[in-house]
Amino acid sequence: MDLASLKGADPVRILFVCLGNICRSPAAEGVLKVIVAERGDSARWHIDSAGTGRWHIGQLPDKRMRIHARRRGIELDHICRQVTVDDFEDFDLIIPMDSDNEQNLRALAPSPEALKKIVPMAKFVDKAMRYDYIPDPYYESAEGFELVLDLLDSGCRNLANML
Ligand code: 4NP
Questions:
Q1: I need a labelling partner for 68 at 20 to 30 A (CA). Which of 13, 32, 140, 149 fits?
Q2: Which of 17, 18, 19, 95 to mutate to test the pocket of ligand 1 (most atoms within 8 A of CB)?
């Protein structure tokens, strides 16, 4: 995807994707929604998230992620769903959190145009943070969740600035 061609697009449709859709991608959805709301620009942005896995379909985000996000003023109310091939039609950018998510999306993409919509989250994160993926916090402690939120804050701010 040529990000420059999306600048100022109305609407701009963003889908964040991780494995379970209960930690990283719903957090990214919540972080970006707050950033664009702070800018008074919510109407232009359609922001959603999905998982490559199906274990948690129908559930709210992981309670630990909800607590860590809430401390930053971010309420996570997404209901878990699995990514579908239709998402490549319904979204302009599909943003995986790590290389496993990216490979799964690449396998699902129905066309060369769809493949171009996949841009890894780490591409938007400040290089000084020295992460080339968003690490899965599911088996980690509080620091893992805070790290994810720090990386997502950086990436979502840069994404919002670009578009
Ligand atoms: P997420 O984290 O991909 O950031 O939502 C995970 C959540 C659940 C599982 C794995 C990762 N799980 O195996 O159930």
A1: 13
A2: 19
The domain 8-157 having CATH identifier 1.20.1250.20: the answer here is no
Sketch the domain layout of the chain as residue ranges: 8-157
Chain mean position to CA 99? 14
Distance CA 152, CA 121 (A): 8
138 Cβ closer than 6 Å to some ligand 1 atom: yes
What gap in Å lies between CA 94 and CA 90, rounded to an integer?
10
Kindly report whether the global pTM for this prediction surpasses the value 0.70.
yes
Q: How far is CA 38 from the centre of its chain?
A: 18
